[in-house]
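Friendly challenge for the regulars: who can give me the structure tokens for this chain first? No prize, just bragging rights.
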Amino acid sequence: MAEIALTPVSYLVLGEVARRGSATPYDLKVSVAESVGNFWSFPHAQLYKEPPRLAAAGLLAEEREAGGRRRRIFRITDAGRRSLASWLSSVDSGRTELRDPGLLKLAFSDLGRPGDVVRLARAQAAAHRAHLEVYRTLAALPADAMVWSLRRTLDLGLAYERLAAEFWERLAADPLAAGPVLAPTAAPQADPAQPAGDTRDTRGDTRGAEAAGGSAGDAVAPPGAQVVPDDVAAEGGGVG
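First reply, four minutes later:
Bragging rights claimed.
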């Protein structure tokens, strides 16, 4: 089997097939749309092209149905599991990218017409608030409705949507107002009762809970597939 270069979509396919046990490309499309497609967008045609490529490299095994639609069914191989495990153990996740059309428009709003930024901000705020309500509904699903790792990734989805909604609402209220400036975190002050040489911060730290704005159980990811149509991808759309 020839070695191939693996991309994030390669690992996405390996992970989905490993989790499901077996999958057709259509199964992958549906599964991704309901989970990681909410935060990792790409041309959906890759979900049809990537499994055969991984099978040719020995990372997936392919079977064809004997009759009917003769669907192609893929299962992960031992080599595929080793490759997936190696990727999961890697600490190099790359640089986070945020491709937001609203923010792109905002960056050039000084060149637009008066009132454009207010209309943009109101529309963006409404969209994020709508997403937030959907997330809260999904958060009420039974604990066994999704695996723990997806629930933890979804925590950030809720926190982000809340933050984004509040940002756009402030902008709509006063586009020219300076936004809040985050002060640098102060270094821990020495505690007179703390033994010399003991550098632990004895003040306690609840900033993480305050910043999150809610509990982990209250958080779920953005709804709806973010898989980018092929015609949009050809023009440079999507993420990653």
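The chain is about 45% helix and 5% strand. Residues 99-177+210-227 form one domain. Your move, everyone else.
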